[in-house]
Write a structure and sequence with these properties.
Number of domains: 2
Strand content: 15-25%
Strand order of the largest sheet: 6-7-10-5-11-4-3-8-9
Mean pLDDT: 78
Helix content: 40-55%
Low-confidence stretches: none
Length: 297
Amino acid sequence: MKIYIDILILENIVINYLILLLTARFTRSNTSHLRLFLASLVGALYVIVLLLFPDIEIYYSTAAKVALSLLIVGIAFSPERIIPFIKVLAVFYISTFIFAGAAFAFFYFNQSGGFVRNGMVYIWNTRWTSLFFAIATAGIIIKIFFDIIQQKLSKEKLLVPLKVAFENGIIMLSALIDTGNSLYDPLTDSPVVVVEFNAIKNILPLEIQNIFDESIEDDLASVTQIVSSSKWLSRFRLIPFKSLGKENGMLIGFKPDYIEVGENTKIRGARNVIIGIYNRALSKNDNYNALLGPELI
């Protein structure tokens, strides 16, 4: 079997470079094409050393491979602190593993030849189209993977504790800071915090609870009659809206004694707000039960 060193070096440089480029993209690290090329070249030369000196077992050890990855990441990105370095290294490993899986799949379906020796994989009869599709597939998988993670982290950062006080009752909620929540009370121009009925039910007057228990909140005539005859009339509002899965809807709201947003030393209180009662679930996973406008943070 013949192995052409120039082709082997070229293939490894291309693969290493693209993996490092993906790593730079998803970690948003500052680097340059020259540094990425030099790091890719170091990785390619390591493969050549393994091929030319097969009897030096230390080069095949896990410690040597970990040291190589540390060197490659260090050359490509030069992170100055340990936490960013670990983050970049983790993304580099993830990108490498995903690319390896995609590459093996395409090489298998295209019947490329190859063998594994001392933990290193050598492939010949490689079609560059297979390599291209493997890289493209790996890029798509990695993008989806990181989009999911970033979306989850973003949502966790947007969740804040919310305390609502009304008469003698206090309810603790988990609120999502919703940049799309632009509801305001048309009478007082106060911002509206949308809260699930089941989460706030216990502090509501009985006659207001009955509206939602009987699911007649969309019956404007009945709602108006019940609210107008309630001793809490001055505290309740009818708020028009065009969201939450409904067009030209009417949201029943009330003015609480006060609300508090945040926790520990980052608590912010407000009194000029309206709580809008929503008789459905706001979160599919019950991660939050209120929607809060960013102006209240």
